[in-house]
Amino acid sequence: MAEITVHSPSHAQQRVRTLKLRRTWTGLAGHLVIWALALFFITPVVWMFFTALKADQDVFRFPPTLWPYDNLQVMVNGQALPVYDVTIDDGQTQRLALLDVAEGHGDFVDPVRPTAEPVNLRMKFAEPVLTIDFQWHNFLNAMNRGVRPGLNVNFWTYSINSLILAVSVIVGTLLSCTPVAYGFSRIRWPGRDLVFILVLSTMMLPFQVTMIPIFLFFTETLKWGDTLLPIIVPSFFANAFDIFLLRQFFRTIPEELLDAARVDGASEFFIFLKIVLPLSKPILATITIFTFLWAWNLFLEPLLYLNNPEHFTLALGLQDYQSQHKVIWNQMMAASVVFTLPVIVAFFFAQRTFIEGIKLTGTKG
Amino acid sequence: MNAQSSAAPLRPVAAKRRGWSARTRRNFVTGLLFISPWLIGFFLFILYPMLASLYTSFTEFHLKAPSEWVGLANYAEMFADKRFWVALYNTSFMVVIAVPLILFCSFICAVLLNLKLWGQSIYRVIFFLPSIVPIVASTMLWIWIFNTNNGLLNTFLGYFGLPGPNWLTDPTWSKPSLIILALWGMGSTIVIYLSGLQDVPLSLLEAAELDGASWWQRLWHVTIPMISPITLFNLVLGVIAMFQYFVQPFIFAEAQTSSGGSDRILGSPLDSTLFYSIYLYDKAFVRLKFGYASAMAWVLFVIILICTLLIMRWSEQWTHYEDAR
């Protein structure tokens, strides 16, 4: 008995110590694993940004470097010249500026003594001196680049088209889905829940099934080919997904609130407009952001309908870089950054709305 | 006027059969008015196109002349078409391998992000960020990363002395490349799992811990059953989406063909990325065989329906609903 009373405090202390130690180790291991995974997720994004900032010849440097490098340049006689470390015959290296190259030989001049006669040396013995240099103008070049000869089209055109598309689709979705969701949640009418099951079941339908007749209807019957209309107009006719989200939200508004208004003689439309909508700002924000993402990402529909580059969206226009014989990776990445930036900015401003929206779709489904 | 009608006593059920009350009738009209945008859209963009494509699937489409009825010829042609089976195989490969893999990895990531560690909110942003990069941009980015000579991935493998494969041009590696791309962008699945993990009642986990259950046992016997409805949801959505997989392989194929000829060869290299929707697009909008493509679309629809039903049936064995005690 005495033994136990003497032993147990130290034993307990030891247990606590080992437990603490184990917790530290598992914590460390957890951090290590998460770090490794985080690198997998973040590196490509960082790579995109840094590639966008590289000089043309730097993109194909082997092995590739993360930081954008460019040749160090020096002003000699009013001329910007690249600097090389040149190994001279006696094994010494000298820092010289390159004037001209011909047949594997370069004319080098000493920047300290610019008036001296240039030395002709083999390029084999010259190493370019590199310096970290961000090519910020890549972004402007990428945006201003005329992608098709003979057409006044560049990435500004595509950006404007993408914006027009996104804004119109957002307006259409909000205008059409809100009353429909109200009709499915706050008005009691015979057959309502049956029809709502039909709404939900349309989510199962693959686009491929309706794609061809819709395509023919818009291009042959309405002659809307090569415009954004076939993509914008359907958004004004509500979609199952957003109806579902809005309905879930509308159902949480207390019935007494609406009944009080009904007693006062308010029409359903008035209640919808003046009571329900003002209370639904969070869900409207969620839908706005997700519709924006959806429209910004849209690829198949623009691919089907748009022929003239003047009407291309960014998603479609980005392909211009691929169809070239030689892909200009830094400019393509710069254009990709421009394409991605609005989404990332939106995410950092409305992080909570993003996450809530995804949770809504995931857990309430 | 609203007050009057709501004050009026509800008629007995027998009277309902003969006709609705004034209030019900008015609610019916108001309800239909409110849902009319969807109703019109349903007829215009769902019901009519569905019937039209079903009809088209039995015809041979001509651009300048009226289409001719060919019966089941398109379906017969499809079953004899080698490339159709290749496309179906490639898509099934992705559904069977990629979808479960993505679910598994998302779950692991969510569990890690749910550990009580310092800096989790930053990690969560990092894991989620790739999923909001527009698909076209992320696919182009990965084509650059997969570049055999100057790509980031092969450079990285080179540090370990591993020979980097031709990710995009080797038929054995083209599908794994697409899977890596999909794993990179699985952020929203992680978020869904994470929110599910946070909803697992702490009392259950603590009770298990008191009973001496280890971390693994708690994960296996408490957490995984508790979030099984979310797994089912992610699985069904993942399968439906994978059957319609289009944008990434389309742009991948573009990368194959850009350097050489001007013609885009869909499904390259060697049809290894010829997925169902890619082949359907090729038939419909490159070869203008609308009849054949419509038949393909309907077969796809039926396959998706059957798969969804099978998954739902199968899920009864492993999903756990708290309410259904």
Q: What is the gist of this entry?
A:
The complex is a heterodimer of chains A (365) and B (325). Chain A is an alpha+beta fold and 365 residues long.
What does this structure look like?
With 365 residues, chain A is α+β, with helices and mostly antiparallel strands. Chain A folds into three domains: 1-52; 73-128, SH3 type barrels (Roll); 145-363, MetI-like (MetI-like fold, Orthogonal Bundle), CATH 1.10.3720.10. Chain A is 58% helix and 11% strand. Chain A is built from 14 helices and eight strands. In chain A, strands 2, 3, 4, 5, 6 and 7 form a six-stranded antiparallel beta sheet that branches. A two-stranded antiparallel sheet of chain A has the order 1-8. In chain A, helix 2 (137-144) packs across helix 13 and helix 10 crosses helix 14. Chain A is flat. Chain A starts with a helix and ends with a helix. With 325 residues, chain B is mostly helical. Chain B folds into two domains: 2-56, no CATH class; 75-315, MetI-like fold (Orthogonal Bundle), CATH 1.10.3720. In chain B, strands 1-2 form a two-stranded antiparallel sheet. In chain B, helix 5 (82-113) runs parallel beside helix 9, helix 13 (228-243) packs antiparallel against helix 16 (290-315) and helix 15 runs antiparallel to helix 16. Residues 1-15 of chain B have low confidence and may be disordered. Chains A and B meet through helix 1, helix 3, helix 4, helix 5 and helix 10 of A and helix 1, helix 3, helix 5, helix 6 and helix 7 of B.
H and E order of chain B: HHHEEHHHHHHHHHHHHH
Level-1 CATH class name of the largest domain in chain B? Mainly Alpha
Indicate the structural class of chain A: alpha+beta
Mean pLDDT metric of chain A: 84
Main sheet of chain B: which strands, in order across?
Answer: 1-2
Strand-residue proportion of chain A: 5-15%
Q: Count the DSSP helices of chain A.
A: 14
The fold-level CATH name of the largest domain in chain A is: MetI-like fold
Average pLDDT across residues of chain B?
86
Q: What is the C-alpha radius of gyration of chain B, as a whole number of Å?
A: 26 Å
